[in-house]
Amino acid sequence: xxxxxxxxxxxxxxxxxxxxxxxxxxxxxxxxxxxxxxxxxxxxxxxxxxxxxxxxxxxxxxxxxxxxxxxxxxxxxxxxxxxxxxxxxxxxxxxxxxxxxxxxxxxxxxxxxxxxxxxxxxxxxxxxxxxxxxxxxxxxxxxxxxxxxxxxxxxxxxxxxxxxxxxxxxxxxxxxxxxxxxxxxxxxxxxxxxxxxxxxxxxxxxxxxxxxxxxxxxxxxxxxxxxxxxxxxxxxxxxxxxxxxxxxxxxxxxxxxxxxxxxxxxxxxxxxxxxxxxxxxxxxxxxxxxxxxxxxxxxxxxxxxxxxxxxxxxxxxxxxxxxxxxxxxxxxx
Amino acid sequence: xxxxxxxxxxxxxxxxxxxxxxxxxxxxxxxxxxxxxxxxxxxxxxxxxxxxxxxxxxxxxxxxxxxxxxxxxxxxxxxxxxxxxxxxxxxxxxxxxxxxxxxxxxxxxxxxxxxxxxxxxxxxxxxxxxxxxxxxxxxxxxxxxxxxxxxxxxxxxxxxxxxxxxxxxxxxxxxxxxxxxxxxxxxxxxxxxxxxxxxxxxxxxxxxxxxxxxxxxxxxxxxxxxxxxxxxxxxxxxxxxxxxxxxxxxxxxxxxxxxxxxxxxxxxxxxxxxxxxxxxxxxxxxxxxxxxxxxxxxxxxxxxxxxxxxxxxxxxxxxxxxxxxxxxxxxxxxxxxxxxxxxxxxxxxxxxxxxxxxxxxxxx
Lengths: 333, 364
Known about the structure:
The structure holds two protein chains of two kinds.
Chain A: E1 30-31, E2 44-45, E3 55-56, E4 59-60, E5 67-71, E6 76-81, E7 86-92, E8 97-104, E9 109-115, E10 119-123, E11 132-135, E12 140-146, E13 149-154, E14 159-163, E15 169-174, E16 182-189, E17 195-202, E18 206-211, E19 221-224, E20 236-238, E21 241-246, E22 253-257, E23 262-266, E24 271-275, E25 283-288, E26 294-299, E27 317-322
Antiparallel strand pairs in A: 1-27, 2-3, 4-5, 5-6, 6-7, 8-9, 9-10, 10-11, 12-13, 13-14, 14-15, 16-17, 17-18, 18-19, 21-22, 22-23, 23-24, 25-26, 26-27
Chain B: H1 23-33, H2 47-58, H3 87-106, H4 112-136, H5 145-156, H6 161-176, H7 188-202, H8 220-223, E1 240-241, E2 244-246, H9 255-259, H10 263-266, H11 275-280, H12 288-304, H13 312-316, H14 343-351
Antiparallel strand pairs in B: 1-2
């Protein structure tokens, strides 16, 4: 296995890392060998408790990294215990489960699942029934959890903020700052490490930075991204923002677009730090490893052009990009 | 708004129909978006000013105002803030705003959030439809109300994504407009049946929420029960607007929902209710004959499997069905040194330790 730090340290694969520059790897990043055959819906690096970096297309149990939660369109969520290599069902909904997040609070731990059946359910893994069910106004499309805050967004552009202390409860509903379908959300923290706001991405190539309780309404803003031909031209192709993630150290953010590019942004100075070259297919998921050295992104078809453009022959990729320097915030001049 | 007080309406931009809090901001917006030279970025003060600048300085002709709606691109009209807007457009805008308020009231049984956002959506949809409501509304004066209301809706509602949204505000707006011929009182009745009929083409259940009928989940609400989780009738997104195109299918479903329509993802079901499987399959939105055949195939072997067997199909398939978040990495960490790091085939051996038999390939 690879070492624990540095660029090469985050693959569970053997040493056949492809580094030769070919068309499919315009950023000349490390390529993960043998990625999944199908479109990759989510990536997560292992938490800090595991000395090595392991990358999964799934969701980790936040703290001891011994369990992986998987949720899917079979309307179930499963917990895969890595030590025993056993997988058990831990959640069920009436419709495909779109999100699952592990919540660890001082007096409880549970799995939060958001589903297209318009409910948010909280599961104690030892019990068959959810310990709490919250109704959503619409199908859950995306969610993020940073204790003690959870943000959930649904169809019809609803935005709900929950506080997770004692018992999860709805804290507020925010009117959407975006005009189009929400696609991804990611919570960011302030300098003290408290979750204070979130970034919300839509299908219309736009991201909104929203503070949960802004000191000044002008703190909230939106910016356009993942559009072709620049913003001054008459004709523009507008792509969906498939994923947003914040850098764990710098607090800057990365967006993954349906246009096959990823970009780094500094929300405090409201600037763009970098845009990547274009990949062969859209970037469907991305994530940072725990120390912010590595940015992983998955290149696969996101269905944005319908069924016709799904080409099972086209290979999917997961790339690892060294990002620590590039993601440093821009100094406000 | 009970009293007849005519409070000044909020400033809005004639070029792109956006609303602003005050005229100063509107002016800044116009200078930055509509009166800015795309070559040298110099901000001019008016449309004609910009056109002259481009001609003299860059020797380029400008035929339309940048970032403007298709019917508002005329560079020769001199607009400055709210000054210079032609009367007919002012009336149109007022009508649209009234329509926006009506639909908010109509959708009042829903939460504030939805009401607010539906009003917003109505407004966003307006620019696209204005080209048709603009010329059509003035011509309504002499026509009787009912047939006039019926035809634009029927013609456009189901077809054109923009006007599908607009059909509702249109119907709302006409009764409000001070049409000649004493039409003030009569429109009230025709508008009701029209609202009811508005829900039929675009959704199956939105009688209670006509304002959302044409939008996103109006149709979805009824169909998300039991086995069918992906709405069959959904609203549309205005993916084409002026000079930009959103690279997204027009249906207002998430990409994952669209992907979940694939037959291989339809074969999921709540394990406790097996009969649902055979019911669910014919509801595949894919080609009819194919789905019935596949359901026949699936139905039989499925029925023999204990509920738990349903699980591995998406799992055993290494690839990730939508939002199927599966672990790959940690396999290296597990006590399974025989595990080939390659993922695609690799998952199969895990089918065994997990207690699930491998499914035949056709169930991929």
